[in-house]
User: What shape does this take?
Amino acid sequence: MTAPATGPTRGYTASKDQLSARLRRIEGQVRGIERMVEDDRYCIDVLTQISAIQAALDKVALGLLDGHARHCMKEGAEEGRADEMAGEMMAAVGRLMKRG
Assistant: This one.
C-alpha cells in the first residue's frame, strides 16, 4: 500500500500560496532588521520593526489556528478524537501566548 502522492490535506492547504507569500514578506522584514542593525539605526526604530514582525507572525498563527479548528479538529471529532485534538490545540495556544 502506497501513500497518496498529494499528501495529507491540512487546514491551511487551500490558502497555502497566500500563507507562503505572507511568510516570505515576514522573512524580508527580518532581513530588513538585520540591515538596520548593520547600519546602526536608532534602537526604537529597530524595536518598532520587531513589533511589526511579531504582529505579522501572530496573524499567521491565528490563521493556522482557525484552519486547525475548522478542518483538523472537525476530522478528529469525526474519528472520535475530539478531546485529544482540543488538548493539542490548547497546548499550541498556550505556547503562542507565552512570550518574554
Remarks:
- Helices lie at 16-38, 43-78, 82-97.
- The chain is about 75% helix and 0% strand.
